[in-house]
């Protein structure tokens, strides 16, 4: 770009650009890209292309490594107290719901195999501003959650070797509580993983496969040991006779409450979609890699939950560290669990850090953040700048911020993106930009989301009883009727060429409903964080991003598209 035409070439140029903000917002905020543009013009911003070296088994490995982290060891306790022995059913329901959302990601990833994941999917559907807002929140969630996972690594490692975490964390007097414990091990882990993911994607896959295999061996040990030493009566009898008995001690409500809690253990499969640009045969490998990993993780989670329920009555399971408590009679087994969790944390951290770097890389390609982040190193074929920057940023946060502080910041952004992607896959199927009236589809998406919000509010705030059951049933029926009318009246504008979500629009609708329901279960702190970072993202977009992308459009690097272009990337293989 000619420096003289840049909005940032001088103070006078920048102030002139600010005066044009309204007109630039009207042009850029809702401008959409196309699959063809994302795979050609936009992708060329990175210079060197990422190498297509991954196959379906690499994606399955990344999916397993990304999902089977510390989550299952944390969420199982609170969920078991809600669902009882039926925690097994809760995990199965949550796994099914995760699979529905994974289908939505898969359709986009196959049709548009680029590294941008949800950011690219929303950019070709709802436009630049919606993509930037969700992408910014997602990046922040990634960084915060990765810092939290790195901090938890030192805790589980200490449990495995029998050393208190306090012995290797440095206390700094004078700093606020929650920021006064320096964790150098967490920093070292983040920086080492940063070096690995900068070096090579294929080598990162080898490291992930190795660590995941070791972790699964630990999980297999937990499952076998639990079934061997446990007692089947614990599936129906509580430890305290005064408590409810049976496999469903708290009924269906307890099972679904448990499912909403353990669903967070499945977050991680979305990072696999960011590796689509490095897959040899996207149409074949991505559906197997994404869906297959979710199915395998669901089976492992159900077996782990069953082994714990067999070892201990549900009312004796501890809310915190449930597996350690269940296996507490055998000290050496608790050490094994700590070691297994440590390996799981490493794999989930590796996959998540690869995902966050690829998100940032593609956000840089769209010029809403500096194009420096989009550069791919010619020797390693990895987004080196984005990986290094976010790695150092994550390490800095992991150095000071305590686990409890960080956990208040995660989840909401990820669930919001899942919700947006499910909406996007419906919109893209039923709306051909430039030739189809979008109003019927937008009206359906808004009314369906509103119905789901009403259902969620009633679930949480209406007093239990027949009236609540009736209201919930009526609301659910309304949601089904709305979907049925839309399905019968509005025709699909396009059909996926290689792979598409089956049973359209029912599966994405179920994903929308689920994610709204789960968003409703989060605490107020999460929403405060979400609003704060969303406002910050809007300010960044108005003060920098819209002007940068406008400059790129004038230079011919970005365009306002109105219609899909059917050509494919020449490297795309069926």
Features:
globular, 574 residues, mainly alpha, 2 strands, 66% helix
Description of the structure:
The C terminus is likely disordered. A two-stranded antiparallel ribbon has the order 1-2. The radius of gyration is 24 Å and the shape is globular. The two termini are 36 Å apart. The protein has 22 helices and two strands. By secondary structure, the chain is mainly alpha-helical. α5 runs antiparallel to α11 and α9 crosses α15.
User: How would you characterize the largest beta sheet?
Assistant: 2 strands, antiparallel
Shape: globular
Number of strands: 2
Strand content: under 5%
Order of the strands making up the biggest sheet: 1-2
InterPro entries: AA/rel_permease1, CAT_C
Subcellular location: Membrane
Pfam families: AA_permease_2, AA_permease_C
Domain Cationic amino acid transporter C-terminal: 499-549
In short:
With 574 residues, the protein is mostly helical. Helices cover 66% and strands 1% of the residues.
Summarize the topology:
Blueprint: H1 11-19, H2 21-28, H3 35-39, H4 56-67, H5 71-83, H6 87-111, H7 118-123, H8 128-161, E1 170-171, E2 181-182, H9 184-199, H10 201-229, H11 251-262, H12 269-273, H13 282-311, H14 322-326, H15 331-365, H16 384-400, H17 403-407, H18 412-430, H19 439-461, H20 466-489, H21 506-519, H22 524-554
Antiparallel strand pairs: 1-2
Helix pairs in contact: 2-22, 4-10, 4-13, 4-15, 5-11, 6-11, 6-13, 6-18, 6-21, 8-9, 8-15, 8-16, 8-18, 8-22, 9-15, 9-16, 10-13, 10-15, 15-16, 18-21, 19-20, 19-21
């Amino acid at each position: 770009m000619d420096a003289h035409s840049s909005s940032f070439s001088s103070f006078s140029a920048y102030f002139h650009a600010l005066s044009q903000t309204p007109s630039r917002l009207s042009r850029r905020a809702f401008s959409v890209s196309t699959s063809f543009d994302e795979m050609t013009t936009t992708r060329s911003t990175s210079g060197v292309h990422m190498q297509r070296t991954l196959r379906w088994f690499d994606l399955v490995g990344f999916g397993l490594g990304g999902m089977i982290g510390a989550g299952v060891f944390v969420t199982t306790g609170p969920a078991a107290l809600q669902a009882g022995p039926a925690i097994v059913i809760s995990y199965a329901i949550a796994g099914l719901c995760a699979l529905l959302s994974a289908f939505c990601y898969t359709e986009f990833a196959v049709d548009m195999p680029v590294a941008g994941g949800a950011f690219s999917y929303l950019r070709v559907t709802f436009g630049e501003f919606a993509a930037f807002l969700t992408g910014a929140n997602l990046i922040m969630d990634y960084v915060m959650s990765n810092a939290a996972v790195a901090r938890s690594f030192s805790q589980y490692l200490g449990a495995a070797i029998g050393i208190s975490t306090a012995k290797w964390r440095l206390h700094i007097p004078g700093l606020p509580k929650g920021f006064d414990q320096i964790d150098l091990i967490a920093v070292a882990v983040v920086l080492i993983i940063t070096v690995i993911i900068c070096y090579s994607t294929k080598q990162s896959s080898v490291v992930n496969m190795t660590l995941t295999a070791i972790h699964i061996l630990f999980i297999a040990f937990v499952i076998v040991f639990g079934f061997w030493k446990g007692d089947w009566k614990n599936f129906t009898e509580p430890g305290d006779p005064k408590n409810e008995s049976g496999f469903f001690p708290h009924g269906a409500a307890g099972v679904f409450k448990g499912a909403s809690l353990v669903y967070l253990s499945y977050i991680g499969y979305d990072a696999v979609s960011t590796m689509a640009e490095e897959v040899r045969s996207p149409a074949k490998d991505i559906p197997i890699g994404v869906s297959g990993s979710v199915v395998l993780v669901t089976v492992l989670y159900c077996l782990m939950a069953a082994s714990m329920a067999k070892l201990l009555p549900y009312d004796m399971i501890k809310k915190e560290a449930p597996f350690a408590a269940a296996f507490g009679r055998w000290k050496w087994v608790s050490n094994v669990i700590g070691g297994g969790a440590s390996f799981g944390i490493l794999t989930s951290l590796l996959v998540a850090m690869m995902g966050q770097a690829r998100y940032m890389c593609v956000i840089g390609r769209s010029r809403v953040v500096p194009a420096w982040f989009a550069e791919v190193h010619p020797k390693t074929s990895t987004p080196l700048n984005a990986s290094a920057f976010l790695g150092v940023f994550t390490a800095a946060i992991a150095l000071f911020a305590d686990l409890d502080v960080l956990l208040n910041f995660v989840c909401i952004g990820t669930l919001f993106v899942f919700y947006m992607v499910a909406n996007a896959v419906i919109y893209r199927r039923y709306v051909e930009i430039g030739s189809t009236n979008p109003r019927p589809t937008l009206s359906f998406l808004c009314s369906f989301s509103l119905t789901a919000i009403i259902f969620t509010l009633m679930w949480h705030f209406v007093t239990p009883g027949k009236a609540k059951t009736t209201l919930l049933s009526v609301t659910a029926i309304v949601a089904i009727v709305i979907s049925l009318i839309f399905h019968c009246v509005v025709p699909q504008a396009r059909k996926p060429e290689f792979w598409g979500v089956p049973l359209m629009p029912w599966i994405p609708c179920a994903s929308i409903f689920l994610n709204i329901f789960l968003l409703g279960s989060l605490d107020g702190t999460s929403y405060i964080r979400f609003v704060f970072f969303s406002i910050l993202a809007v300010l960044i977009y108005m003060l920098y991003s819209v002007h940068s992308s406008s400059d790129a459009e004038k230079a011919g690097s970005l365009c306002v598209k109105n219609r899909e272009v059917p050509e494919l990337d020449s490297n795309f293989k069926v």
